[in-house]
Structure prediction request, 476 residues.
Amino acid sequence: MHPNIHIPEAFIEQIRQIMPEHLNMDEFIACCKTPLRRSIRVNTLKISVEDFLARVADKDWTLTPVPWCDTGFWIEREDEDTVSLGNTAEHMAGLFYIQEASSMMPVTALLKDNDALDCVLDMASAPGSKTTQIASAMENRGALVANELAASRIKVLHSNLQRCGVHNTSLTHFDGCVFGGWAPESFDSILLDAPCSGEGAIRKDDDAMENWSLASVEEIASVQRDLIVSAFQALKPGGVMVYSTCTLNLSENQQVCHFLKDTFGDAVEFEPLTHLFDGAEQALTDDGFLHVYPQIFDSEGFFVARIRKHHSVESPKVKKRLGKFPFNLANAKDQQYITSGIKADLDISLPDDKDIWIRDKEVWLFPSQLRNLIGEIRFQRIGIKLAEQHKKGYRWQHEAIMSLAKGNEKVALDLTSEQAKEWFMGRDIRPESLSGKGEIIVTYRDYPIGIGKWVSNRIKNGLPRELVRDTNLFDI
Prediction:
């Protein structure tokens, strides 16, 4: 229990006024003071749910399916005190993402009966739980633009994308309000999981309500109104967007959606989420939104609205001044050389919906679907870095292995548990009675964890410095 959790009186009064009659206020307060259940989402870019469940069957993990996400599970663990969930081998190999169950709901709402996923925008994306969830559903095809305003959070967003093997994504670093003017009607589908007052997060963060006030809620709602208008302008006619928050008041939720409807009239349709999953009706509002109070599903509080755009709307006119794009599309000869090089060295075939771009000595793989937006907006980072060129060929990169290798390549070597620990600590590996030459894909229990290089009978560790761990690693 969290008996000392701070819940402001004005917040309780606000909830009392808006909570539906079938819900109980005492249960709400009691639930807010109860710690949140841990939950994970299987990363199907790397492993099927079936294979994941088989792989962890020998652990003391109890996994309970999340009703609104077919890859999500609540998790209870016996080994919680000995090793953190983030330091398990499965997490480091990118086989799952630690994600709050409610936060899986917006992406499910975006994807339901929606195959318009050629070019998707996640407008407020760090740390990446929903971005990786969307990328999984896209199966790494098409293009996914992940935007984040906070510079400090872009690094963790990139790190999570890399760990999960996402290679169809580009990162931007803007106030989301620019998209309506800079990229009008450019995206098939958009997720706006808006920055909010975080009232629903009270169960996982004792200080969630520390700076809460009715005035700050109104300030945040004003930002959200600008963001939802910009997102709608950036959406293609006929497209779907989802607006979501992890907060509970009407100002940041229903009223923001109605502001959009008042602004654009019959271009805006609220699509009811009645049948999103079994039990959804318990959280349904009159408009067909989901307003999830924590006690309904024993989860974080959340709000989800699905919006369809029926016709074009006006976007702001902007004057663009972009510097020269520093990459060049590889010519046919270079493309052939790089494609055959990675096949010969690592037994990896490059996906056919990607383009190879060159910058100085660097080789990058970009999503082809992004080509129309290159030169329209400034990207922090696009796709994945495949290699660095040197005199004798290419030095293939860790992120290329994590994104493209399957673990069954001819040059893959499966490490023992002890060797895998050494690897994650940044140390070289000396496999017994083995030696070789060239680069090698290193796996643990058949899943890639990095790239090394044979130096006689030793494998030189190629793990990027920032990924090296030295404590509390998984049990043998």
Summary: The first strand starts at residue 39 and ends at 42. The two ends are 32 Å apart (CA to CA). Residues 234 and 429 are 49 Å apart (CA to CA). The chain has a mean pLDDT of 93.
